[in-house]
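User: I'm curious whether this sequence folds into something compact or stays loose and floppy. Could you predict its structure so I can see for myself?
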Amino acid sequence: MRALLTVFFLFVSNTFMTLAWYGHLKFKEMEWSKSLGLITIILISWGIALFEYIFQVPANKYGFKENGGPFNLMQLKVTQEAVSITVFLIFSILFFKTEKIAWNHIVAFVLIILAVFFAFIKK
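Assistant: Here's the prediction. I'll summarize afterward.
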């Protein structure tokens, strides 16, 4: 159960982080935001990123082996990276329809998934 909760929190936190990092790139298409300056965009992104931390910190706390979770530190990190790239791919397909996913992007994603696999191999 802790593993599923950890991965769920990672998905939620990475969704907020992706919105904070890349969502503002779509602001130019929204009437209310056309005159916003960089500082305002940064503050809006920080506000969104706060929710990333609200989920990221519990994901790491509940998922970490020394806190009773199922993952060691390396497993947590590579799992987070795989979740992050998954969320980013979904986000870019849904919101940036002009971006094309090419074969090299797929290979990069597969290599990240392989990193997760290798991180979970027992030594």
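Summary: The mean pLDDT is 91. The chain has one domain: 2-119.
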